[in-house]
Amino acid sequence: MSPQVLFSLCVVAASGAAVALQAMLNAALGRAVESTLAAAAISFGVGFAALVALTLILGDGAAFARLPSVRIGLLAGGLLGAFFVWSIAWGVPTLGVVSAFAALILGQMVAALLLDAAGAFGLATYDITWKRLVAVALVAGGMVMSRL
Predict the structure, then answer these.
(1) 97 touches 88 (CB < 8 A)
(2) SS3 35
(3) Could you report the per-residue pLDDT of 21-78, keeping only the tens digit for each?
(4) Alpha-carbon span 115 to 92, nearest angstrom
(5) Which residues of 81-115 are buried (b: 16+ CB within 10 A; e: fewer)?
(6) Distance CA 79, CA 121 (A)
């Protein structure tokens, strides 16, 4: 495994740990403000401010000027992110972090399997193989086990 691949895996794994912590923080914020929807909006607002500041600090502010030329459908990622943040803040108090994330990861893997097979958004295609199906089934089994 190349150092670049290893580093990328480590960064993404650290991001996964951060998302688990974010889920707990957003659930607690939801209790504190008595609304998971408001908690998700607050979380997004803080993240938005941090990303704008970082973009400007790193000298990428000119990218914001290109926004009017972007296809509007590409902005749906923000809506999907909002749904993700809210659904986790809402689901964690009922399911716990492990079960909520098992369901989240199962949904991600099923969607990723289909998106890979379709070569969505001009990306490379990857076949649906028995190994990939088994990987999804193992995550589904983990989700079930997390609730027993």
Answers:
(1) no
(2) coil
(3) 888 899 999 999 999 999 999 999 999 999 999 999 999 999 999 999 999 998 999 9
(4) 27
(5) eeebbbbbbbbbeebbbebbbbbbbbeebeeebee
(6) 18
Helix, coil or strand: residue 19: helix
Is 85:43 a contact under the CB 8 Å cutoff? Answer: yes
Q: What gap in Å lies between CA 33 and CA 106, rounded to an integer? A: 30
Structure tokens that stand for 57 in this block: 């600090």
* Closest among 109, 113, 55, 105 to 84, alpha carbons compared: 105
d(CA 105, CA 147): 15
Task: Give the pLDDT mean for 119-131.
Answer: 92
Q: CA-to-CA distance for 23 and 13, rounded, in angstroms?
A: 15
In this structure, the number of other CB atoms found within 10 A of the CB of residue 123 comes to: 10
- Residue at token pair 């951060």: 18
CA pair distance 27, 29, nearest whole angstrom = 5
Q: Is the overall model pTM greater than 0.85, yes or no?
A: no
Place of tokens 């989700």: 143
